[in-house]
Backbone:
């Protein structure tokens, strides 16, 4: 049978997209999930201390209120449970095929459908939606001797919960968003902890606190209060945007918070100097934590800034010395700019997406790719944020994609394909606007491709993106009418 829509991935993007399609009357929706459970990044990242850095009342679907979040910044397990609740409540749980990894998707132009090859067989669908996200494939660093280590080693997104860190000598490689959360937890158990820092992050205080029962009751029972609170959080976060994409100097107040957080957490002047980044604030992701700097100040924790030369069977070697360790944890991030890799996606005229994107990923509004009809991306190029909730961006994309599907149905079309000139114009606009952003002020970040292009982030307000994706413009697409 030919399905109406197939979605790849069951994180916030895939689950929300399936819900919105079903609400629009598209009930024959299938979600393909390579893992054995839903949740995407919130299923994969179970490291100690895992939590969101966006307030809970905004890091949730607008159509499914949750008034009883336990904390202002939700922990991983609670977010995952929320996603499971949404999938069950809206009837998409039984539409997920677990343990089914997509290896290839090929557009059959004659039949106007996608043939999707998976580890469990082949499916056919009129519409294909990628909900893979940008943070789903862990990166292990290319360090000489990495495979020679005889102790326990793992990436933070594949945390080995069977590894007992109590009393062990632990090395952590990387100082990104995950490390800032799990390092304080590891420091509580390890006999020795050595954190290998290539680049210091900006870390500011985290205004976190538990919600009390009376606050939950008010949010759940006073008409309009939940919506007002959500709007307040949105406006507060959105106000920071102009500092990222137009006037970086406006981030000076955030830099003051960083200085105070560092001074309050670290007394040692030498350690404090080593923790001051050498790039403008905002160029890389700004991190939040109340316990990261105090953890680094503990006597059994050592910050190592000398570059790693190699991993040995017994530990980690720099130019200065070798550090013997029992466990290595890699907090080294994800492959972020390939989007649909390692899947092979083939569009019209046999064109491969990897070839189309050899100079960097491009998609009109981060959603549609010229030459790949009826293919839609969630959290695609130019849609990541540095200041607000990605769920807001996803919901904008849900509406746009549903609008495209309704155009197909209403006008009796086999397929629509965004025009190359429309996509090129959008890409030129993004690259021009990106030049004035803090992300292009000289640092090396996961926002960039290997040749230095920032292709992940949206250089504007999120409400401007919502306006741009309000409805698809028929003039932006080529189309083929269905045979009568």
Residues:
């Amino acid at each position: 049978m030919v399905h109406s829509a197939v979605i790849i991935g069951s994180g916030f993007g895939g689950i929300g997209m399936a819900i919105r399609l079903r609400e629009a009357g598209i009930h024959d929706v299938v979600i393909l999930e390579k893992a054995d459970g839903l949740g995407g990044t919130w299923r994969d990242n179970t490291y100690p201390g895992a939590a969101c850095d966006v307030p809970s009342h905004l890091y949730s679907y607008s159509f499914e209120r949750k008034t009883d979040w336990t904390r202002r910044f939700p922990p991983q397990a609670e977010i995952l449970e929320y996603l499971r609740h949404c999938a069950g409540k809206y009837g998409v749980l039984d539409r997920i095929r677990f343990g089914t990894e997509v290896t290839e998707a090929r557009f059959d132009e004659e039949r106007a459908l996608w043939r999707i090859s998976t580890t469990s067989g082949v499916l056919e669908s009129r519409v294909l939606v990628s909900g893979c996200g940008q943070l789903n494939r862990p990166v292990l660093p290319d360090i000489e001797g990495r495979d020679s280590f005889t102790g326990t080693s793992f990436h933070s997104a594949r945390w080995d919960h069977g590894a007992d860190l109590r009393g062990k000598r632990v090395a952590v490689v990387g100082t990104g968003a995950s490390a800032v959360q799990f390092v304080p937890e590891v420091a509580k158990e390890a006999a020795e902890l050595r954190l290998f820092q290539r680049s210091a992050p900006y870390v500011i205080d985290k205004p976190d606190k538990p919600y009390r029962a009376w606050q939950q009751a008010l949010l759940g029972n006073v008409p309009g209060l939940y919506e007002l609170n959500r709007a307040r959080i949105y406006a507060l976060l959105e106000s920071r945007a102009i500092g990222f994409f137009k006037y970086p100097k406006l981030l000076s107040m955030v830099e003051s918070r960083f200085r105070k957080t560092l001074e309050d957490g670290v007394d040692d002047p030498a350690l404090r100097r080593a923790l001051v980044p050498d790039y403008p604030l905002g160029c890389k992701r700004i991190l939040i934590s109340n316990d990261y700097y105090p953890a680094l100040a503990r006597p059994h924790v050592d910050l190592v800034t000398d570059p790693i030369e190699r991993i040995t069977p017994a530990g980690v070697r720099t130019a200065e010395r070798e550090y013997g360790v029992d466990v290595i944890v890699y907090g080294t991030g994800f492959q972020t700019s390939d989007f649909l890799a390692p899947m092979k996606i083939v569009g019209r005229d046999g064109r491969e997406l990897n070839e189309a994107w050899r100079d960097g990923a491009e998609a009109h509004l981060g959603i549609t790719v010229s030459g790949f009809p009826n293919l839609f991306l969630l959290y695609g190029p130019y849609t990541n944020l540095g200041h607000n909730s990605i769920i807001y961006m996803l919901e904008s994309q849900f509406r746009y994609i549903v609008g495209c599907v309704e155009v197909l149905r209403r006008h009796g079309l086999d397929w629509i394909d965004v025009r190359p000139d429309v996509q090129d114009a959008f890409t030129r606009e993004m690259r021009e606007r990106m030049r004035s952003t803090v992300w292009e002020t000289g640092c090396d970040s996961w926002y960039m491709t290997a040749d230095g292009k920032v292709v992940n982030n949206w250089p504007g307000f999120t409400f401007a993106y919502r306006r741009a994706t309000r409805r698809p413009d028929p003039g932006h697409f080529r189309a083929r009418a269905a045979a009568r």
